[in-house]
Structure formats: C-alpha cells, structure tokens
C-alpha cells in the first residue's frame, strides 16, 4: 500500500521532499538489486566471461553509495527561503 500524505504534496514542503527523496532512493536500490541479480545469475548460469559485469556492478554500486550519501548526510531539508524581487534587487545592489 503506498504511503499517504496528509496534505497536498509540494516539493517546497521539507518533510515531503525528504520522504520523496527516500522513496526515490528505495526505487534506485530495488532496480539495482533486480538488474544486478539478473546480470550475475546469467553470468554464472552461462559460465560467461563477461569482464564488464564487474564494472557495471561496481560503477552502479558507487553511484548508489553517492546517492545514499547525499540523501542521508548532505541534503538540506530545512524550509527553503523565499526570494522575492525586492530582496533579490536589494542583495544585488549593495
């Protein structure tokens, strides 16, 4: 059952942004697991000599790790500051 959001979804809402990013990460993990398990199943089943399989898995795992690092350590989910025309012109003029 998909998660329910109590209000209208909005990317400006920090809680929604955090949940959305984590759900996207979960989809990324699921696709990684499905594709790589299939890749290595057929690699072993056919006794194939695929030197690129290691590079695909390693590269994708590195990207997955970077995605996790961003989501869980770097991303800032605080309320975004709203920039209006007045504040933008004041900050650029002086």
UniProtKB/TrEMBL annotation:
Q: Cross-referenced InterPro entries, in alphabetical order?
A: 2TM_dom (IPR025698)
> Any keyword Transmembrane helix?
yes
What top-level branch of life does the organism fall under? Bacteria
Going by the UniProt record, its keywords in alphabetical order are: Membrane, Transmembrane, Transmembrane helix
Domain 2TM: start-end pairs: 17-80
Transmembrane feature ranges: 25-42, 54-75
What protein name does the entry list? 2TM domain-containing protein
**Which organism was this protein described from?**
[Phormidium ambiguum] IAM M-71
For this protein's source organism, the top of the classification is:
Bacteria, Bacillati, Cyanobacteriota, Cyanophyceae, Oscillatoriophycideae
């Amino acid at each position: 059952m998909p998660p329910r959001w109590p209000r209208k979804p909005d990317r400006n809402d920090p809680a929604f942004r955090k949940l959305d990013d984590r759900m996207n990460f979960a989809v990324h993990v699921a696709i990684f697991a499905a594709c790589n398990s299939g890749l290595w199943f057929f690699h072993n089943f056919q006794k194939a000599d695929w030197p690129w399989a290691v590079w695909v898995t390693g590269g994708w795992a590195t990207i997955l790790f970077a995605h996790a690092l961003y989501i869980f350590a770097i991303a800032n989910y605080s309320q975004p500051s709203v920039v209006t025309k007045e504040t933008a012109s004041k900050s650029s003029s002086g």
